[in-house]
Write a structure and sequence with these properties.
single chain; 397 residues; alpha+beta; FAD/NAD(P)-binding domain; Elongation Factor Tu (Ef-tu), domain 3; seven-stranded mixed sheet; seven-stranded antiparallel sheet; 25% strand; elongated
């Protein structure tokens, strides 16, 4: 092999890029990984609160958003969660299951990164960090990449540069620029799995309740998630809000059911009969935190705050019940890419083979991971897409 000539060059040393690199290396391919950061896998290290939610026991195509909902099926079948779990166990990484089938390292995300790096070393993958890409061009024998560390050539080029989320980790739109350079369509990108913000009086309420978590059901556009909602200084976060953010469009209101197991109308009418001398706020205390109840009282029954249930008109109780089961909140926006866990949309999958991740119109060019229009739910689904898409491309590059 000529110096600086490889079978495969992978741009991006994240989850998908590293997985693709050692998969190709195991097939005897010479592989070079180029990463702009000073070390590979930075996003892996911070994931899951430093414990890396590396996959989920229940991976279904329905857990992914894409303009083509069928695109992810082939890769997810080709490399499933059980295969990744087997690798984790082979590397003797202790892990545990949390709610909804989410799997986390017992110790640290560093173990997952070390596993990927060790697999790359075993497969003789060459890795270069702090590498700025200057130009990429298609040549007769494949691709020429001009970088700050010199010129490199390869037969296959894999774009594993990720999305725009968390720019402090080195995220950039570089992968999208490459796609455009080669004539691929991009779908409009937005931040996904991201907290909501408010600019009206609700912002002050969220600020006062900051740190409070409430088990709710949240919905928008006929999509619901039942999880904790977390009030923050800027708005709302927590699993239910993060999940819903991927389905929300600016200007839309979201519905929050604060009592998902109860019919609030029946509950309040029953209280009026059985606890007619009690105050509404005291009756709601077993169901919701005191702070939240007081905020709701100020908003929705201030004139009846100190009246016993018997004296509160049915119409008012019906109105309060509606707020408890269907609290309509209108976010002013989200926190954006700064805190988003993923980037929605990206490279249009109609340009790519679902079996190999290769570009249909540009032989030898592959896209894997977050850069394309496949986005998973919260809970290990995006990592599984990284492993699966990386494996799919690694089998063919």
């Amino acid at each position: 092999m000529k110096k600086n000539h490889y079978d495969v060059i992978v741009l991006g040393g994240g989850a998908a890029g590293l997985f693709c690199a050692f998969t190709a290396g195991q097939r005897g391919k010479s592989v070079l990984v180029l990463d702009s950061s000073n070390k590979v896998g930075k996003k892996i290290l911070m994931s899951g609160g430093g414990r890396c939610n590396f996959t989920n026991l229940d991976i279904q195509p329905e857990n992914y958003l894409s303009a083509n909902p069928h695109f992810c099926k082939s890769a997810l079948n080709g490399y499933n969660q059980w295969q990744f779990i087997e690798m984790v166990e082979q590397h003797q990484i202790a892990y545990h299951e949390r709610k909804h089938g989410e799997l986390f390292c017992d110790d640290s995300a560093k173990e997952i990164l070390k596993m990927l790096v060790d697999e790359c070393a075993k497969a003789k993958v060459v890795t270069k960090t702090s590498c700025a890409i200057k130009t990429i061009e298609s040549i007769d024998t494949g691709y020429r990449i001009v970088t700050s560390l010199g010129d490199f050539q390869s037969k296959s080029l894999v774009i594993a540069t990720g999305g725009l989320s968390i720019p402090t980790m080195g995220a950039s739109g570089f992968g999208y620029e490459i796609a455009e350079q080669f004539g691929l369509t991009l779908l409009p990108r937005t931040a996904g799995l991201v907290p909501f913000t408010f600019s009206d009086k609700l912002k002050d309420i969220c600020e006062r309740l900051s740190g409070l978590a409430v088990g709710v059901s949240m919905s928008v556009n006929n999509t619901s998630f039942r999880e904790n909602l977390l009030f923050t200084h800027r708005g709302i976060s927590g699993p239910s809000a993060l999940q819903l953010s991927s389905y929300w469009q600016p200007g839309q209101a979201i519905s929050v059911n604060l009592l998902p197991d109860l019919n609030a109308t029946e509950l309040l009418m029953d209280y009026k009969k059985t606890s007619s001398k009690s105050l509404l706020r005291n009756l709601l205390a077993p169901h919701l935190s005191k702070g939240l109840v007081l905020e709701l009282q100020t908003l929705y029954w201030p004139d009846h705050a100190d009246k016993p249930m018997a004296e509160i008109p049915d119409a008012v109780l019906h109105e309060v019940a509606e707020k408890l089961n269907n609290w309509q909140l209108k976010p002013s926006g989200t926190e954006g890419y700064r805190t988003a866990e993923v980037t929605l949309c990206g490279v249009d999958t109609s340009h790519l083979s679902s079996k190999t991740m290769e570009c249909k119109t540009q032989p030898g060019l592959y896209f894997v991971g977050e850069v394309m229009d496949v986005t998973g739910h919260l809970g290990g689904y995006n990592f599984q897409w990284a492993w699966a898409s990386g494996y799919a491309a690694g089998q063919y590059v």
